[in-house]
Amino acid sequence: MVRILAFFVGLGFAGILLIALVLGLVDYAKEPPAETAEHEFYKHPKTLALASNGPFGQFDERQLQRGFQVYKEVCAVCHGMNLVSFRDLAALGYEEPEIKKIASDWAIEVPTVNPDTGEAMTRKAIASDRFPSPYPNETAARAANNNALPPDLSLIAKARHDGAAYVYSLLTGYSRQPAELLKKFPASKTTPGLHYNPYFPNLNLAMPPPLTSDGQVTFADGTPGTVDQAAKDVAAFLVWTAEPKLENRHRTGLAVLVFLIIATILGYLSYRNIWAEAKRKVVAKGPLDAENMAHREHAKGESGGIAG
Amino acid sequence: MSFAWAKPYQPKTELGRWFDDRLPLPRLVHGAVGGGYPVPRNLNYAWNFGVLSGIFLTIQIVTGIVLAMHYYASADGAFNSVEHIMRDVNAGWMLRYAHANGASFFFIVVYIHIFRGLFYGSYKAPRELIWMLGLVIYLLMMATAFMGYVLPWGQMSYWGAQVITGFFSAIPLVGEPIRVWLLGGYVPDQAALTRFFSLHYLLPFVIAGVVILHIWSLHIPGSGNPTGVDVRSEKDTLPFHPFYTAKDGWFAGLFLIFYAAVLFFAPNALGHPDNYIPANPLATPAHIVPEWYFLPFYAILKAFTLDFILPAKLWGVVAMFGSILLLFFLPWLDRSPVRSGHYRPVFKRFYLLLVVDVLILGWAGGATPTAAVVAISQLASAYYFAHFLIILPLISKFERPLPLPSSISASVLHGEKQESAPYGLAKTAPAAAE
């Protein structure tokens, strides 16, 4: 009974699926979906080799400092980081007085309340503040940016596929729209206020190119401030803001693996030891039995005799 | 418990005897996972995944309890409290990654455990209830994992909650009220988040309870084995301790190496980047996908594109739940008296096809739904239902199984005649006999 019922239920489900399959294919043959510019011209991120990549990767402190400089001079004009504090910069090798100075010199002040009147006002940032957004709220941010919202950058390297490589590719990927694209998809012409970038999923990005010319950023450590270098460094910096405990994670992981491997080897050896006799116990006699050993000696003697 | 030759617990010390007289807890452990539980001696490594499931349940409960001390179930604060755990709590990053990847590995282990059962006929008499209790555990795991994924209140959390609770609105007439009642509102918000947190904390302990029933019912007939032949004598078994504790022990170490490698070196590989974006009810992600372990079912859900009498969405939801519920009837769908797939040549081929089919469904569930992907998932879903509901009953009727070994110990010994023969002479033995 169960099986007869099951047979018909199965036939029902499979039947409906197969009908849907056929109808879907007929639809597809009649009216194949139109090709899209996104599908044809989207590019996957370029590869980006960072010191923090790989299982043993550690941050390159100087690169992070350069990346922070790019963030400070370029990105911070529009993007805040509400999960990262100024004092977290200690991890990049900045000393406490330096951090205090960075905070108080920060171009954007943080909102506060006037202690005398209770009115809203702003004050200079202190070390325990998070990196502030220049906009008081989302509406203000959209109003200032052609209705686009500059995202918070704290987690951006984990919130996009291929994180750091995506950031690097996007920053260096701005270009003119290819003539081919315009010829094939005239409707996909980038509208004013947007910027063509093949690394952005829909190819048109509201953010204007932030890094426009070599030398835009002058690095304190003498590294040439090319667009490519600045993009790499800020991508590395954003890996740190998204995952500040990365070095600790890699180090701990190594120790855990070493421990587990040793424990597993010891466990395996004791398993072999415990099981050594278990299989043979089924039969009364194994190869190490006195009787079999005697047979073996005897056999050896005989075969030796033949060879001789 | 199960066999006459099971060694009863014998306290070795005065204190042990005193304790055993008053509370026979050591006796219980001895009978459950100690020297008092005789296990077939021929188990292969597919049998290690039950104990591993228990290990991962423990990891999830322990890390989860500590995470709950720092997590804050508030629609405004949940996302940032998770980042607080990642950045400020001592070893918080390790706890969270251990928990998130622990869920994935729990599912990996349980899927292997289930497919072991499917191949070796572990659902057949007298083990039907063990199988069904296992399915209950699996359903509870799915509910727990789904609600846990909502807690960080990222974009995928939020929209996943939208989609999954949306299943209920497919039910005619009462669907929408049920959905609103479950969510405590028209869209996922504070009420939904708080109840999901409460249930996410509760369900693992319910799972632990059902696990006890699962193991209890296992100990009545005893463990199955790769030949599917019943245990006949003491020669066929070994005590669980030390033999299987040793085997499970080293293999758990091996498996934890893989777990640790993902946890420490690719902790976000199994997650979705969108969940690092705070939930935003006004911005729908381009592709809403569940966690990887739900993808085969998601593919079945999306495969129904045809409004055939009922709306396509309702078909999809019914089929998706049906795809799991039909497993409860497996003991009565597959009537072959032979348990192990090793002795069922036709079954073995279709079983392999099923494994490939489920992998294809998993891939199709995560892929961008182009016409080709939809067509493939329709074909694969059709096979899934046909396999369990049509093919399996037919095979069990017409297949001629291979001859079974006379006993477990005989099967272990297939090469052992040679082994016990004088060293180096086994191969020449027939010639010598002439």
Describe it:
The complex is a heterodimer of chains A (308) and B (434). In chain A, helix 3 (61-73) crosses helix 8 (227-242) and helix 6 packs antiparallel against helix 8 (227-242). The mean pLDDT of chain A is 90. With 308 residues, chain A is mainly alpha-helical. Chain A has a two-stranded antiparallel ribbon. Chain A contains 10 helices and 6 strands, in the order H-H-H-E-H-E-E-E-H-H-H-E-E-H-H-H. Chain A is 47% helix and 6% strand. Chain B has 434 residues and is mostly helical. Helices cover 62% and strands 1% of the residues of chain B. Chain B contains 18 helices and 2 strands. Chain B has helices spanning 14-22, 25-33, 49-70, 78-87, 92-119, 128-150, 155-166, 175-183, 190-218, 240-265, 295-303, 312-325, 330-333, 345-366, 371-398, 408-412, 416-420, 429-433; strands at residues 38-40, 237-239. Chain B has a two-stranded antiparallel ribbon with strand order 1-2. Chains A and B meet through helix 1, helix 9 and helix 10 of A and helix 4, helix 5, helix 10, helix 12 and helix 15 of B.
